[in-house]
Known about the structure:
Layout: H1 2-21, E1 56-58, E2 64-66, H2 67-77, H3 97-106, H4 108-119, H5 122-142, H6 149-173, H7 176-185, H8 193-201, H9 211-216, H10 221-226, H11 229-233, H12 242-258, H13 266-272, H14 274-286, H15 288-298, H16 300-311, H17 322-328, H18 336-348, H19 350-360, H20 366-392, H21 399-420, H22 426-453
Antiparallel strand pairs: 1-2
Helix pairs in contact: 2-5, 3-4, 6-22, 7-13, 12-17, 13-14, 14-15, 14-22, 15-16, 18-19, 19-20, 20-22
Catalytic activity: S-ubiquitinyl-[E2 ubiquitin-conjugating enzyme]-L-cysteine + [acceptor protein]-L-lysine = [E2 ubiquitin-conjugating enzyme]-L-cysteine + N(6)-ubiquitinyl-[acceptor protein]-L-lysine
Pfam families: SAM_1 (PF00536), zf-C3HC4_4 (PF15227)
EC number: 2.3.2.27
Amino acid sequence: MLHHLQMERDSCDFGLEELVDDPPHSSEFPLPTPASSIISEHEFSCHCCYDILVNPTTLNCGHNFCRHCLALWWESSHKNECPECREKWEGFPKVNILLRDAVDKLFSEVVYRRRAEIQANPKISRSLLAFQRYGDTIGRSRTNQHKGAGFFFSGVLTALTCVAVMLLVYHWSSGEVEQQDLLISKHVSRWTTEEVISWLEHLGPWAQLYREALQQENVNGRLLQMLSDEELSKPPYNIENQAHRRAVLAELDRVKALGVKPPQNLWEYKAVNAGKSLFLLYALKSSPRLTLFYLYLFDYSETFLPFLHTCCPAITHTDQTVEGSFVLDTQLEPSWRQWAEFLVKYFLLPYQLIAEFAWDWLAVHYWTSRFIIVNAMLLSVLEGCALWRLWTRDRIRTLPSRMWSHLWKIVSQGFAFALLWPFVPQFVCNCLFYWALYFNPIINIDLVVQQLMHPETQAL
Length: 460
């Protein structure tokens, strides 16, 4: 019995030794292999484009997508939900850094190729910028960035808005513009003595010297048209200064030619040319170069020449006073120096021309001129930021196509305005005029702050 048990133990030991010495064949019991050898591209593919993940972004539901695929989906659907399971995400999705590094190491060549293709696609770049700007907006709202600099700028915007509202109420309630309408709409032959004196005072402070003489002689509109250089130089008028007489006679010739007093400030120009002033106000803001070119072609003598002489004044001779050259020089042909200065500013700094024109009328339109100057500076900054983004992102070659599309847009809007203008109520036109004049600078302040604080998130 014992001998039999010993033989069975020996046979078991012999079987174990065979198993140790001769392991099973690999086809029957395969050995485990390294994990990297069984990883496939399918496990790291995006469920939108079905390609290797680039900047993988993980949503709350756990699904991963290429960041540009998610941006395109968000831009087209305008929904904060997963493209696969439609579960809404909260906050702003972030790039999964761990997954991104793993994909970059495993499929470096494919990721490099795909990133180059993404950067070369302008549509994808715009979508990514818009998506990032949306995320920045959410981030700013959640981190209380209204404090500090944001609180300061909001206070400035509030103060400027109050000033704009007060100016708007003042111009609507005051009768200054209505009083000036009498001279710019009433024929000169029907002017009274008070209206003739009012016309003279508009020529400048120097004209106050001759106010009393005209009042004593009861010079009305009919008599004003009969005055000549010889009569003005003799008693009772006694305008001995030759430059003053030339200024009075030159302005009198314009009154005779037009039959009414020509507009000499912004409000008078608006009263005479309501539609044109509104068109110029919006056109100068959107496209100053095309607007000035339009004035050169279609309104050369009445608007373009005075604008050019104001922004690029001619060199005044020592024997010629400012009063004498005020009216005369605005109708003369510009010199080559004036044209050279104007063209340089026209191509490089068109908004500076508008600011210089408003600066010249600072004494007449105190707050309005300041609003125009500030708005011109802000628009110059916005234009410079746009050109800088084109240059830094290697898209300067797209500038001709952008200019052509901008030209087509402005021309089409101009034709639409010309067709719809007769049917627009005057009250609506006044609202649009004052909005562009006083509220657009306030809006542009916020745009400039966004450009300077977050330049990388601004879409072209």
